[in-house]
Amino acid sequence: xxxxxxxxxxxxxxxxxxxxxxxxxxxxxxxxxxxxxxxxxxxxxxxxxxxxxxxxxxxxxxxxxxxxxxxxxxxxxxxxxxxxxxxxxxxxxxxxxxxxxxxxxxxxxxxxxxxxxxxxxxxxxxxxxxxxxxxxxxxxxxxxxxxxxxxxxxxxxxxxxxxxxxxxxxxxxxxxxxxxxxxxxxxxxxxxxxxxxxxxxxxxxxxxxxxxxxxxxxxxxxxxxxxxxxxxxxxxxxxxxxxxxxxxxxxxxxxxxx
Length: 258
Prior knowledge:
Elements: H1 21-42, H2 52-61, H3 74-83, H4 88-114, H5 125-138, H6 152-175, H7 183-198, H8 203-217, H9 222-247, H10 250-257
Helix pairs in contact: 1-5, 2-3, 4-5, 4-6, 6-7, 6-8, 7-9
């Protein structure tokens, strides 16, 4: 039998040598996260890049005055920057929180989806916690290629993580032949709006995530897929209407970017 299609075996001999390894992995991952997050926190008030970071901060400072831009990231972070009283260090810390939070939600969704696929894994919550902590620790990679101030790439990364977290959560319901809560596809639709507003080219990964969601819901049948599509559309439409009414008219923001 092909090892890729063979059923999982819960033979005790195939179990890990000990059940203490999730705690060790959890501790190591938390230490790694503490190092990069602590470094980002300590550096929040130091250094400045006059190129990319300077562009971001200038657009955020006058986000509702100057609309001539190729990215709508200013409509995402501009209001946040204003609430933070234009404190650059505070905006960098806000970005740190979104990086940690986005990876945390994604990690939880993945590990909960993975649990029934790993019958030989230790039957303890520490196993899920360890895997989630590893995903969060990997979030430090974004600090190796992006400025400390959030930009349009941060919107795309965060949107992709949250969107995929929703897909994994929906897949869990579908595999149990259970009804998918409406708020999951609705929340996914909400995330699509800021992602596309910040970076039009993100339409490609967004489309891939949508296809993943369709495949995840396929076991429930066409009706369930159509229902989820409807809630996704409702979430996206509602988010777009909110941006148009409360942040910036899309008729003002979109034409200059095009």
